[in-house]
Amino acid sequence: MQELIGNAWRGWMDYISDGKYAVLFLGVLCWLWLKKDSLKSVQERRLFNFSVLAAVLVIFPVSAAALMLYQTRFYDYKWLWSLVPVTIMIAYGSACIYIESYEKHWKGKLLKPIGWIAFWVAVVLVCSGLTGKFRIEEGTNAEMEKAAILLDELTEDGNNHNICLWAPKEIMEHIRALSGNVELLYGRNMWDAALNGYAYDTYDTEVIKLYEWMESLGEPHEAVMESLGEPEEAVMKSPPENLCVQTAVFYGVNRMVFPDTISGEILGNIESAIAAVSEGTGTIVKREAVDGYYIFRLD
Amino acid sequence: MAVILWLVIALVPLILGAGSLRICNGKKCYNDMRFTDAYLTGILLCIGLAGAVHVICIFMDCLFSDFVRWFGIVTAAAVIGMLLGLVIGRGKGPEGNYLGRKAFREGTYTAVQQGVFFMFGLLVVLQAVVLLTGQSIYREGDMTLETVNTFLASNRIWEVNPLTGQAYDIGVPMRIKILVLPSLYGALCKISGVPVQQLVGQWIPVIVLLGGYFAYSRLARVLFGADASKRGIFLLVVVLLFCAGTYMDVMDGFGVLFAGYRGTTIRNVILVPYTICNCLQGKWKSVLLCILAEACIVWTLYGMGICLLTAVLFLGVHLYQRRFPGKEAVCRSS
Asked: Is A72 exposed, middle or buried (0-12, 13-18, 19+ CB in 10 A)?
């Protein structure tokens, strides 16, 4: 319980660290508290009381911890704020403040109402955190387009039902969103831990190491072999590409994609490893270069 | 097919909602039922119907195509039934109102008020255009796109891992399996032929955006009644908050503009405001619909989510106000 209360308090601190809509909301509540006359109807008073109650429950660590248990550990503290009518009360307060000010002070005037509107828009923009830290990662659309081009290339022979793909993360991330027919060696939950809450299945250690190797392409052999858990003498005998290609084929991969930024030596090792595997299994290997990547087909 | 799908999305919830409100409330529903009430109730019923068929298909181990067929049949039957109910039970309400007529009989708007509502409408249209033409959707922590693609490709429900395309070894918790949105989106794609990315990434967010504004519009009517100035400013500020409030993934604005297809966005933007609206009016049947709809689209604690908590807190506030009444206030009927 102590841990939950601590998480709740830290969650509240994180929630107000970027944008300040919660602070604006509390400011509106304070104004409405002081100007209770503006709450004319039963419904308005009821909404105000509900907002105060919800805000207290969500901010106070003990009640917030209880609510976090209620919403289950699937969600973080910040999702508790779905209970609090932040948007509704800011909008309601804005309407009440404006109309009250207009009727008491600005009737017949033009500049003051416009000035107030401009001021309020500025307040909302400032409270939203003008830096706009949380954005869709730049380049996501470009990556998806690239993945789409590669997918077209992989499936251009019409055979898109027996493909098991292993590629860099920026490609693997988008393939299943574009097509449900292509299998992947591993999915987005390899790097997006939040997705692990959706299923009980986990990845084998070898598959995790294949992911780490793919993302480390270009690093020195020794470091990569160490991460793969291979003994030191193996580094001298066999490059990591051999082990990785063999393991990938063992897991059913028949399409491999590598970035064309890898060194000639690594590319050569990969080609040799694939050739060695295909000799043993009688598969046909084709290599082609497409839009910044090398595609190896093992059929 | 795209045009037909838009017509279906526009009309089916409206017919279902209007019919169900007529059945549940009798002719007196014509006094205060608005287009927004009918449409929002219809959306909740569509989610509920899809949820019921989906759960039955899960427990009977049906194919995805079976779900699509049964969902289509059940929805068509419900629409026909509601249409018959509306036609048979047609006529004026006790105060001489037809459905929605009251909305158009409440006086005229001043030029300034018209300007405010025009600005609001313009900004909503701009947001819708951005959603329909943009490609930015936020997929971190969510796999709806992959799941819809997998249902369509494998014709099975939750037997293939959406992230890898391989069969599950152990599987998925039941609380994930019963969530209906991937199946609903997949059914719409299968019936209409619209690509998954277009439907899930563009069309559904527009529907959620409009549904959200319907909910806020209804709430504004409940709070401010015939005061068009306050209603207009309320809605304008909501639009502004949506546009600017994208600094965190839990903010309504972020959900609406970047993740409109998600259950949490539908809950925060449509269900919670509409729950609050219905709690303020004492329409507890509609509150129950919101609670059930949330259970179908969002991971909850055995069906208990934010809407239920909202209703419970409102009930507590209601009982407190009856016990300790404040100053005399005019009860404004909505």
From this structure: middle
Contact A227, A213 (CB under 8 A): yes
CA distances from B139 to A46, A80, B258 (A): 37, 21, 9
Q: What is the pLDDT of residue A236?
A: 47
Minimum Cα–Cα distance from A190: chain B residue? B163
Report ipTM for this prediction.
0.90
Distance CA B266, CA B262 (A): 6
B235 in A contact zone (CB under 8 Å): yes
As separate numbers, helices (DSSP H) first and strands (DSSP E) second, chain A gives 13, 5
Spatial distance between the Cα atoms of B250 and B267, rounded to a whole number of angstroms: 11
Chain B: closest CA distance from residue A274 (Å): 23
Q: Is the pTM of this model over 0.80?
A: yes
Element (H or E) spanning A257, and its range? strand A255-259
Sign of CA dihedral B89, B95, B96, B100: negative
> From CA A246, how far away is CA A274, in angstroms rounded?
8
How far, in Å, are B201, B239, B240, B243 from residue B126 at the CA level?
17, 11, 12, 11
